[in-house]
Design brief:
The protein is an alpha/beta fold. The chain is built from 15 helices and 17 strands. Bound molecules: nickel (II) ion (NI).
Length: 436
């Protein structure tokens, strides 16, 4: 059905960050059909379905390039601990008890939060990923999905390995599905949870399937030191040797990079998913963001799972990415508002290889949009809308979200999800899991 959004301020997110005052956007099927400057509507357009966005902002939806959606089940469950202890003593043992249904409802909870806070695409690494795919298909959001892979056994058999087989199956069943909204990557968890040959095997499989890789890389100082000790090289050099960078890669974190690592990542066109909230909360460190960007690395933003953040609010990551760099380097000119917003939209699209589909408002692109109510007091006076997004916005000001031409939330009302049911199911399951 045709959809018209009129009277909007449109942040196109094109190369020159053009803003259209009093713009109209017409959507036909899954695409942006026409963008006009003076409220002009194409004559063949039926505008029965109209959203009046007077005084509000329309822009491409945000892209969360690193998360573990179902980990919202573990939100506020174990905090204020070092990453290894948190992961091996708290997360992994509890996650072992999860059923497919638990993962489905955890993913649903996260999708509710993501839609409510303006995220239209997310990149997810977890297990029971068929269930996450089902949640993505039903809710209408867009996603890049990876079955998390780990293996501590040097003698593994690639033919019979359960995780590798599930990853293949996920790719065969879901890549390109849900009206093209789902892409499937491979998700070797990290260099410290995959023996080298297993990581090489994952890279080979990605090549064979013609897809990409989503991996955690150099998140903590311990990981960086262990890599030198165990492999005799940095984590980035290790991945390079094993062929990981021969396919498109989303490398989450990249906090502890050497100069040479940075050069390798740029040369191999790896995208770094910067997760400032998670890195701060887990005490992982502060990424070399200004240098990463100035050297030409594609840096995008992610929230990480809700157990390590503890929310999926991309507005927070936009703000943190700029503020940390300015404060840490005693330099307020670093990471300007444009750069911070770009990381959450255009760079995210590029990282997931969907920059020709989403991330810019122009005719022919997929209609993945959000409307932010910039009439609220924290946007007044309306001096600079990009600054407002980076510094004075609130994710709860997102009132309408459209993905693939379909309205998923309008005026704060979710259209494809029964939110009460999701909350009920999550509360019930978490009680069961904790034996209460
Ligand atoms: Ni993660």
């Amino acid at each position: 059905m045709d959809l018209l959004i009129k009277n909007a301020k449109v942040l196109t997110m094109n190369e020159s960050m053009d803003i259209i005052e009093n713009g109209s956007i017409t959507v036909r099927d899954d695409k942006i059909y026409y963008v006009s400057k003076e409220g002009v509507v194409p004559p063949d357009f039926s505008s029965a379905n109209t959203i009046d966005a007077k005084g509000k902002l329309v822009m491409p939806g945000l892209i969360n390039t690193h998360t573990h959606a179902a980990m919202s089940l573990l939100r506020n469950y174990a905090d204020d601990m070092p990453l290894e202890k948190w992961l091996f003593e708290k997360m992994f043992p509890t996650e072992d008890k999860f059923t497919g249904e638990d993962v489905y409802w955890g993913a649903m909870l996260s999708i509710v939060e993501m839609i409510r806070t303006g995220t239209t695409t997310f990149a997810d690494m977890y297990f029971f990923m068929e269930e996450v795919a089902r949640a993505v298909e039903e809710t209408g959001i867009r996603a890049n999905l990876s079955r998390g892979l780990q293996c501590f056994d040097e003698q593994f058999d690639a033919e019979t390995d359960k995780r590798l087989n599930e990853a293949k199956e996920l790719f065969n069943n879901w890549n390109g599905k849900a009206d093209g909204r789902i892409r499937v990557y491979l998700g070797p968890h990290s260099i410290y949870t995959c023996v080298p040959d297993y990581l090489r095997e994952a890279a080979n499989l990605a090549k064979e399937l013609g897809t990409g890789i989503h991996i955690h890389l150099l998140e903590t100082q311990k990981e960086a030191k262990d890599s030198i000790r165990n492999f005799g090289c940095t984590g980035v050099e290790h991945c390079l040797k094993l062929g990981v960078f021969d396919v498109p890669v989303i490398a989450a974190h990249c906090v502890h990079l050497s100069d040479n690592d940075l050069e390798i990542l740029v040369k191999k066109k790896v995208s770094a998913a910067h997760n400032p909230g998670s890195n701060l909360k887990l005490g992982s460190g502060i990424a070399r963001l200004p240098e990463m960007l100035s050297k030409g690395l594609n840096v995008c933003l992610g929230t990480d799972g809700a157990a390590s953040n503890n929310n999926l609010d991309m507005f927070e990551e936009i703000r943190l990415s700029g503020l940390i760099s300015k404060g840490f380097h005693l330099n307020p000119t670093l990471i300007d508002a444009n750069e911070a917003v770009r990381m959450a939209v255009s760079n995210g699209a590029k990282a997931l290889g969907i920059q020709d589909e989403v991330g810019v408002i122009r005719a022919g692109m997929k209609a993945d949009l959000m409307i932010v109510d910039t009439n609220r007091v924290n946007y007044i006076p309306k001096n600079n809308v990009v600054s407002a997004l980076a510094y004075s916005s609130n994710s709860l000001d997102v009132e309408t979200v459209i993905v693939n031409g379909k309205v998923l939330m309008e005026g704060g009302q979710l259209k494809t999800i029964d939110e009460e049911k999701v909350i009920y199911q999550v509360e019930k399951r978490v009680k069961q899991l904790s034996g209460k």
